[in-house]
Design goal:
The complex is a heterodimer of chains A (113) and B (115).
Chain A: E1 4-7, E2 10-13, E3 19-25, E4 31-38, E5 42-51, E6 54-57, E7 64-70, E8 73-78, E9 87-94, E10 103-104, E11 108-112
Parallel strand pairs in A: 2-11
Antiparallel strand pairs in A: 1-3, 3-8, 4-5, 4-9, 5-6, 7-8, 9-10, 9-11
Chain B: E1 3-5, E2 10-14, E3 19-21, E4 24-26, E5 32-38, E6 44-50, E7 56-58, E8 64-68, E9 73-78, E10 87-94, E11 103-105, E12 109-114
Parallel strand pairs in B: 2-12
Antiparallel strand pairs in B: 1-4, 3-9, 5-6, 5-10, 7-8, 8-9, 10-11, 10-12
Classes of the chains: A mainly beta (113), B mainly beta (115).
């Protein structure tokens, strides 16, 4: 299994509070991604990173920000959580160049009350 | 923008029977296609991928998929399912080689295995 960890694995928070989710990799892969998974929607891309300090928006980026100050860490921040952001969040990584396949972390289950 | 359609939300198959899960994509250029499987409460595991070359690709756990450009399809097959195959299956398409800009996923097909 690819060396990807996500923390926390579960979180309950209240509407309006800031939340930061962390993805950590030990593979030294260049690309990192954040997806959210919701019933009936599959997985949707929130943001991705193609290097340290290099990030871009995905399909559902509103309400989320990201940061990548080190190759191994990719942070997802909900500045002011809303109930619509209750979801399961997955981090993924892929290698730089060649046949890049995305490998997924175990997920973080977030409940916003 | 690319899109993926998995027409079947749920499929029920008897153990030992054959399986085919459908996937149709929409993308203007050469697609890069993937099938992932997700067991309950788990992350996603890559079953197989198609980038180029032979249109019939083999994956793990006895799965295979066939890329048909004329039908914009990438259907997943297995000749004989096992109870452990019960899971959620996702088809995905990448816009660049390996999906470096992220993958677009279908909504998934929930596979139920009957004894």
């Amino acid at each position: 299994d690819a060396g990807i960890t996500q923390s926390p694995r579960h979180k309950v928070t209240e509407t309006g509070t800031p939340v930061t989710l962390r993805c950590h990799q030990t593979e030294n892969h260049r690309y990192m991604y954040w997806y959210r998974q919701d019933p009936g929607h599959g997985l949707r891309l929130i943001h991705y990173s193609y290097g340290v300090k290099d990030t871009d928006k995905g399909e559902v980026s509103d309400g989320y920000s990201v940061s990548r100050s080190k190759t191994e860490d990719f942070l997802l921040t909900l500045e002011s959580a809303t109930s619509s952001q209750t979801s399961v969040y997955f981090c993924a990584i892929s290698e730089d160049g060649g046949e890049e396949t995305q490998y997924f972390g175990p997920g973080t289950r977030l409940l916003v009350l | 923008a690319q899109s993926v359609t998995q027409p079947d939300i749920h499929i029920t198959v008897s153990e030992g029977a054959s399986l085919e899960l459908r996937c149709n994509y929409s993308y203007g250029a050469t697609p890069y296609l993937f099938w992932y499987v997700q067991s309950p409460g788990q992350g996603l595991q890559l079953l197989l991928k198609y980038f180029s070359g032979d249109t019939l690709v083999q994956g793990i756990k006895g799965f295979e998929a066939e890329f048909k450009r004329s039908q914009s399809s990438f259907n997943l097959r297995k000749p004989s399912v096992h109870w452990s195959d019960a899971a959620e299956y996702f088809c995905a398409v990448g816009a660049r080689r390996g999906g470096a800009d992220g993958l677009t996923f279908g909504k998934g097909t929930h596979l139920i295995i009957q004894p």
